[in-house]
């Protein structure tokens, strides 16, 4: 099992943690506070979810090397631990090949679902 020392980062209320369309370099484990995940429908943001302590955000772009599929904004003060691409890659390398394939397919379906939700609003 890999032991990783994660760096902490704090975001103030309203801070954009992740911008939709940006490349993914880091994921975050939310330790304190809540974030809003939203996707642009071309005119305005569509709220997809709210996540709090224990949630991991931004992992999709690290796994499948696609641009960020949604924006993440701090609802209040948010404290996260940073998971780098190398950290996640190391974790996935230890997973069985079939599990990595399942994860990639789930991400593809989730991206498709997010597109449908944003387009339906």
List keywords for this structure.
33% strand, 121 residues, Jelly Rolls, four-stranded antiparallel sheet, alpha+beta
Summarize the entry for a quick read.
The chain has three helices and eight strands; from the N terminus they run E-E-E-E-E-E-H-E-E-H-H.
How would you describe the overall organization of this protein?
By secondary structure, this protein is an alpha+beta fold. The chain has helices spanning 59-64, 85-94, 97-120; strands at residues 8-11, 16-18, 26-32, 35-40, 45-51, 56-57, 71-74, 78-84. The strands form two sheets. The chain has a four-stranded antiparallel sheet with strand order 1-8-3-6. The protein has a four-stranded antiparallel sheet with strand order 2-7-4-5. Strand 4 and strand 5 (45-51) form a beta hairpin. The model has no long low-confidence stretch (mean pLDDT 87).
> What is the count of DSSP helices, taking H or I runs of 4+ residues?
3
Overall pLDDT: 87
Main beta sheet: 4 strands, antiparallel
CATH class: Mainly Beta
The ordered string of helix (H) and strand (E) elements is EEEEEEHEEHH
